[in-house]
Amino acid sequence: EAGVVQSPRYKIIEKKQPVAFWCNPISGHNTLYWYRQNLGQGPELLIRYENEEAVDDSQLPKDRFSAERLKGVDSTLKIQPAELGDSAVYLCASRTGTSQETQYFGPGTRLLVL
Amino acid sequence: GENVEQHPSTLSVQEGDSAVIKCTYSDSASNYFPWYKQELGKGPQLIIDIRSNVGEKKDQRIAVTLNKTAKHFSLHITETQPEDSAVYFCAASGSNFGNEKLTFGTGTRLTIIP
């Protein structure tokens, strides 16, 4: 079974530029999460989707961050414009949503804003 | 909200010895506690989890204990091997199914000395 797929794996941009990250969850997983992991810290939730509905986006900085999961499968997280403090690893995770299984994480996208 | 503290931040043990990582949580409503292992350049991988109706759980060389009264839980790794070297994160959630927000600790960098 394929795991959570994320792309790109690395991204370097200049501040004020836009950037987008893509995630394809494990097949059949209805719940999808985006986390941000700063250097030396644990992941922090940005947004959670149940199918195509964002059910928890309280931690998403909505002035510059946006996310979508139009068909309830893959998802895109966007930052526009990026700031220096956005440098981090952006992790996507998924779970089935119907059992006691926990969240399965992708490899992450490492973003560096210069 | 939930706050999870994790100690120590770094831990070095001789190969074959045991390693113990401890976490405390603040929200008495939390009832699901997973542990993740993160290797360099990879996303967190679940290694074991425990729910609040259980005091201890073991899987080969890995065990987790939970003290709900004291609000703390611990990861025990016995007979450590070089491949156990990684960063370990504890987390807490308000749901038995992990679909609520996971709050992570700050991580423990475990180094196994050959």
Structure write-up:
The complex is a heterodimer of chains A (114) and B (114). Chain A has 114 residues and is an all-beta fold. Chain A contains no helices and eleven strands. In chain A, strands 2, 4, 5, 6, 9, 10 and 11 form a seven-stranded mixed sheet that branches. A four-stranded antiparallel sheet of chain A has the order 1-3-8-7, with no helix packed on it. Chain A is globular and about 40 Å long. The model of chain A has no long low-confidence stretch (mean pLDDT 92). Helix content of chain B is 0%, strand content 54%. Chain B contains no helices and eleven strands. Chain B has 114 residues and is mostly beta strands. In chain B, strand 6 (56-59) and strand 7 (62-67) form a beta hairpin. In chain B, strands 2, 4, 5, 9, 10 and 11 form a six-stranded mixed sheet that branches. In chain B, strands 1-3-8-7-6 form a five-stranded antiparallel sheet, with no helix packed on it. Chains A and B meet through strand 5, strand 9 and strand 10 of A and strand 4 and strand 5 of B.
